[in-house]
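Subject: mismatched residue count in predicted assembly?

I count 498 residues in my input, but I want to confirm that the predicted structure covers every chain. Input:
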Amino acid sequence: MNKETTWVRKDLLGLEDLSREEIKLILSTAESFKEVSTREIKKVPALRGKTVVNLFYEPSTRTRVSFEVAAKRLSADVINIATETSSVKKGETLVDTGRNIQALKADIIVMRHNYSGAAVMLARHLDISVVNAGDGWHEHPTQALLDMFTLKEKLGNIEGLNVSIVGDIAHSRVARSNIWGLTKMGAKVTVCAPQMLIPPGIEKMAVRVTNDIEAALKNADAVNVLRMQFERDDEHAFPQQLEYLKNFGITEDRLLKAKKNMLVMHPGPLNRGIEISSEVADGTNSVILEQVTNGIAVRMAVLFLVAQGRDKKNETSN
Amino acid sequence: MKEKTKVLDKEALNRSIVRIAHEILEKNKGTENLCLVGIRNRGAFLAKRLAERITEIEKNKVPIGVLDITLYRDDLTLIAQQPVVHKTEIDFDISGKTVVLVDDVLYTGRTIRAAMDALIDLGRPKSVQLAVLIDRGHRELPIRADYAGKNIPTAQNETIEVRLSEVDGADEVVIVEKNE
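Triage response: the counts match. Full output below for your records.
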């Protein structure tokens, strides 16, 4: 038997606790799953008889649909709970909701929550698997994994790449998960934003920090453009939209000064003309829609691995 | 684990492959509509070798593919070592083709059951045949090989190890006895 890494976790909560080998295993498993979506019959029986519950406390279309498609391509049954129409409105606590879902004999909860740490807390209280689909400003591991998958697919190797993350770093779980993942895989990460959107202490995450967009794009192999989340701007601290495009937006002019083949990534949804110009979003450097396709393969891999990991865990505790 | 006997050495293994190649051609009257699909891991290497022999004999290339059956296993929750999922690589349409599935050892038949399910999700072959290097008996499903390199009756506490130079550094087949 060759010594390949095996997955023993019942949950995927973030990339901070994962080892480089575990990240590699998810990415290589996803590579195998990508082919399934190119078939005429886009389905394999790996999770037949398993139930996946999408529990979303925040509006989300793309992530939820991506998880739903992924689970269905693995033959799992999927139930979607949008909390606006559920008993959460009647005051049920998160853990109680989780226990009820567990009592329904579901196998995996995929959760999006507006509080940082919600997924970790839920996982601690439940025996079934929890996959974090974004918790507050903390982590969004599957987004970072699909970003890394896309980098690996396009550029061959993540190690040694210069990756710049541009935008609202302070409020971004996508940025945080990407930084954890990319630095573990040996990429050099630069974050770039107006100073008020750079969280204090970010240097401790082994990243280069700059407020100069041209400096961030120079030598970058890829730029990950974050969405300006104006809906989170409670304190009206964000720059004006046009001012942002002028100073930090990814435009054709800026692309001309960067590496010719620099990849342009964006987790969506796009604010065209704010953080990215339409020409760039639809241009040849953009891999934004490929990220969406890759997201399915990555989420299939994650669902498959946590389902097996949970079985392994139950065995060892017997 | 104790090695008991060597049942095939390099030359004998090679002769088995040559013979199976001839049998495949004889039964299918040539290479028309024929393709080989190896089951990961060692079946894939055997399929490649069989295809090379067939090309030597007929001066014709046959398409070869690789099938990973992990997602189709019926024991995903039972096996101790979690299997790693690898790629299925079949870059031609199997619909209407005669597909020869290739594996190293035929034992319970469950791998072949999974392989047939995986195959049929990819298309509708005209027919599916099975070629194995070793048939060791103990079937649990109504499955048999169309081509077998060697039949080796074994005890349940024995296993057959097929070693191929591509992965194991040597070409040989040995019976190994498991420790009680």
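Chain B has a mean pLDDT of 92. Marking this ticket as 'not a bug'.
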